[in-house]
């Protein structure tokens, strides 16, 4: 059976980088990867998302899986932007762990049109309405306070998932994948330790 992941957010939040790191980690662990990404609109202030289907070494051949995740078959939903996580609730079910940032972002294309971002409790209730187990983490705020840029939120989420054993393979593969994809940077150890220690606000 595949382990199905959706990473969603706004352009510039690092959804594609998150997907690249997780796909690399899965490959290092011997898993196969099918997936798709949407980022064209993100370059103009719109939504971005990455779908990944991680296929175990002893499972069906990759050709047996479509890159698109069927409704109700999502195992992990990472909402780097909470509203975008809510929008994809149709893919979730009781098998889904939803990890959602605590800071909603007003969509750039709706600014000046009278759109009001719902309060976070309403958004979280929407994310949970499909049956998902929802965990809220202060990803963007932690990244901004400690490193001056919210784009590091994706690495914090990866560390939390890996060290919390929420992935189907050892978290050490994710650490190796961060280096393989992004290079060996001196701040990675501190980012990893901070992400691993995050607690729900």
Description of the molecule:
The chain is of the alpha/beta class and 201 residues long. The chain has one domain (3-196): Pyruvate-ferredoxin Oxidoreductase, domain 3. The chain has seven helices and six strands; from the N terminus they run βαβββαβαβαααα. Strands 2-3-1-4-5-6 form a six-stranded mixed β-sheet, sandwiched between helices. β5 (97-101), α3 (120-128) and β6 (133-137) form a beta-alpha-beta unit. The longest helix is centred in the first third of the chain and has 14 residues, at 15-28.
- Strand line-up in the sheet with most strands: 2-3-1-4-5-6
Structural class: alpha/beta
CATH superfamily: Pyruvate-ferredoxin oxidoreductase, PFOR, domain III
Characterize the biggest β-sheet. 6 strands, mixed
CATH class: Alpha Beta
Measure the end-to-end span.
33 Å
Percent strand equals 15-25%
Structurally, how many domains make up the residues?
1
Low-confidence region ranges: none
Fold-level CATH name: Pyruvate-ferredoxin Oxidoreductase, domain 3
Number of strand elements: 6
Apparent shape: globular
Radius of gyration: 16 Å
Helix content: 25-40%
| Helix-strand string | EHEEEHEHEHHHH
> Please, how many helices?
7
List strands and helices in order, with pairings:
Elements: E1 3-10, H1 15-28, E2 32-38, E3 47-55, E4 76-79, H2 82-87, E5 97-101, H3 120-128, E6 133-137, H4 139-147, H5 153-163, H6 172-182, H7 188-196
Parallel strand pairs: 1-4, 4-5, 5-6
Antiparallel strand pairs: 1-3, 2-3
Helix pairs in contact: 1-6, 4-5, 5-6, 5-7
